[in-house]
Write a structure and sequence with these properties.
It contains eleven helices and ten strands. The protein has helices at 24-31, 38-50, 65-71, 93-107, 123-139, 152-161, 185-192, 211-220, 224-232, 247-255, 263-268, and strands at residues 3-5, 12-14, 18-19, 55-57, 81-86, 112-117, 142-148, 167-173, 195-199, 238-240. It is globular, with a radius of gyration of 18 Å.
């Protein structure tokens, strides 16, 4: 596994992380107390940690925080970077701080490395949430503040709302089929040294079956999924977080970090 600076935080993160959004049905059943295929998903996360992946993303919405908490028990907490997110109905100060406390309990940790607003709320709600996050930074409950699913104007506005801290990480969809962030968000992150976590880096698995990627994979000794991840890694600040649901897929994704392909492959992609 290779590692690089996680934006301006001074932390070193694996160039490929693990995501724990599974599907809408999982979210519904998790709320009812049924964590479907729990053992398999925990084993997938553990296999990634053993392979050197130290970056894990979750959210209070996903219902997967308990899985992350279970997976990290056999590892040194200081060696793992955990990102979780607060839902937009919980952006008011008291609700956010209660949501954060619940997330920490589910994760089995007393702090989270990155705490993100999952989707933007109103301007006033965002301002109140960011102020509460700064309180949580001061108390040691979170280390860095982030945003998810914000556009560039929203990011710039959020940065102005913060008084003592800054936005350390953005998280948006980015893959070969969805390249919108290239227009402004990723160049902005590269310029401002803000980490960018790319969710759906394999486009819900579609890129792992893409015929053109399959053709290239035969030529260059990497699977279609690995090629799709390598294409994202050409950016200094981008960290793809493919879903971790099966150990074999996690290992395949982790191995992408150690594959060297000619520059022409990235141009072809």
């Amino acid at each position: 596994m290779k590692y690089k600076n996680f934006g301006s935080t001074g932390l070193r993160a694996s160039v490929i992380g693990m995501g724990t959004y599974y599907d809408p049905l999982w979210i519904i059943t998790a709320k009812l107390g049924w964590l479907r295929d729990r053992k398999r998903k925990v084993e997938a996360l553990i296999s990634g940690l053993k392979a050197g992946i130290n970056l894990i993303d979750t959210a209070e919405l996903y219902g997967s925080e308990p899985l992350v908490g279970e997976a990290i028990r056999g590892f040194q907490r200081k060696d793992i970077l955990i990102s979780t997110k607060v839902w937009p109905t919980h952006l008011r100060r008291e609700k956010l701080l209660r949501s954060l406390e619940r997330s920490l309990r589910r994760l089995g940790t007393d702090y989270v490395d990155f705490y993100l607003i999952h989707f933007p709320g109103s301007r006033d709600a965002n301002r109140e949430a960011l102020a509460a996050m700064e309180e949580a930074v001061a108390s040691g409950m979170i280390r860095y503040i982030g945003l998810s699913n914000f556009d560039l104007n929203g990011v710039i506005e959020a940065r102005k709302m913060l008084k003592k801290n800054d936005i350390a990480v953005l998280q948006n969809e980015y893959n070969l089929n969805h390249r919108d962030p290239e227009r402004d968000l990723i160049p902005y992150c590269e310029k401002e040294n803000i980490a960018f976590m790319a969710y759906y880096p394999l486009a819900h698995g579609a890129l792992a079956k893409n015929s053109r990627l399959l053709e290239l994979s035969k030529r260059y000794g990497a699977t279609p999924a690995q090629l799709a991840l390598l294409w994202l890694l050409r950016w200094r600040t981008v960290f793809p977080i493919p879903r971790a649901s099966r150990a074999e897929h996690v290992i395949e994704n982790a191995r992408a970090a150690d594959i060297d392909v000619p520059e022409e492959v990235l141009r072809l992609l």
